Amino acid sequence: MNRSARLAAAVLALSAAPLPAQPEQRMVDGIAAVVNSNVITYGQVRELLMFRQRSLNETYQGEELKAKMKESQDAALKDLVDRQLIIDSFKEQGFSIPDYVVEDRMQNIIREDFGGDRTAFVRTLKAQGFSLSRFREIERDKIIVQAMRQRAVRSDFVISPDKVEAYYRRNIAEYSTPEEIRLSMIVLRVEEDGSGDPAAAKRAMAEEIRGKLAEGADFAGIAQMYSEDSTAEAGGDWGWIDRKTLNEELNRVAFSLQPGQLSRVVQLGDSLYIMRVEARKAAVTKPLAELREEISKKLFEEERLRLQEQWIKTLREKAYVKVY
User: Fold this and answer.
1) Are 144 and 87 in contact (CB under 8 A)?
2) For residue 244, what are the domain limits?
3) What is the reported pLDDT for 193?
4) Are residues 135 and 8 in the same domain?
5) Cα-Cα end-to-end distance for the chain
6) What digits encode the pLDDT tens for the residues 107-119?
7) Residue 113 near residue 55 (C-beta atoms within 8 A)
């Protein structure tokens, strides 16, 4: 779904739910910034936030929500300032957008998100306080910004193989899958029961269980019967794990085992462990040859965004910008 369609979809989704509460009431009105001779109001900021903050309201709460809302407000205001700088540059250079381009964008939104029902589209906009002319204005500005960004940054630059290789080396962990084992484990807990040496008794029990397993007893069945950890009902199955799952001692023992091999009884504190490795996966790193195109595209996009930001910075330096 393109950006215009997402905007319309957001309007449609919001029609069934109230707007999230804003942490700062001042956003209802007032001057948020001045760009050259243009005023950006808090109402415009709030209008933009309408399509950003609903998900924050559903994800966060309390002080964290306030912080995320403030972060979102700051980002929205920056976007509006940048947008106005770009539109001013567009006008200064005498460019124009034909009306039919904007109308085509509107028709695409109506067709893709409202099944071609223009009445439903207009009704949804009005329910959220948007007029058709205001929505058209927003879309016109977005077309201008997109066209000017593309025009300002050349797209014929090339990412060198050296840069691709350097990125690959710096981020090789991102393209690596660690060594893993499929582990089954039985855990017994030592608890004081007022009779003799409970640790010795439980240890003897663990050794007896291990003996049965070594003779071919069903591990899953024994685990369901005796294990005292959360995987007992699953037959002691821990699934695939890497070296970050267990503590250092259990890792050392578990990862020294071959598939089908049973560990000794390992005691750590008041717990006794019997482990068996069912299968192994070696660590795998994708070769650069498979990733070169993907990394090149990533670096190309990063460079394009860097050049766009550099261009925006030059517009800002030449303009009058006052943020309140």
Assistant:
1) yes
2) 179-282
3) 57
4) yes
5) 35
6) 999 999 999 999 9
7) no
For residue range 290-301, what is the model confidence (pLDDT) as tens digits?
A: 999 999 999 999
3-class secondary-structure state, position 244: coil
CB contact set of 219 (below 8 Å; sequence gap of 6+): 184, 186, 213, 235, 236, 276
CATH code for the domain in which residue 245 is found: 3.10.50.40
In a domain, 198, yes or no: yes
- The reply to whether 85 and 220 lie within a common domain is no
The CATH number for 63's domain is 1.10.4030.10
Q: Do the domain assignments include residue 33?
A: yes
pLDDT tens, residue by residue, 170-218? 999 999 999 999 999 999 998 765 555 678 889 999 999 999 999 999 9
* 42 within some domain: yes
DSSP category for residue 262: B
What is the rounded CA–CA span in Å between residue 146 and residue 104?
A: 16
Strands 284-285 and 176-177: antiparallel
Task: Give the three-class secondary structure for 132.
Answer: helix
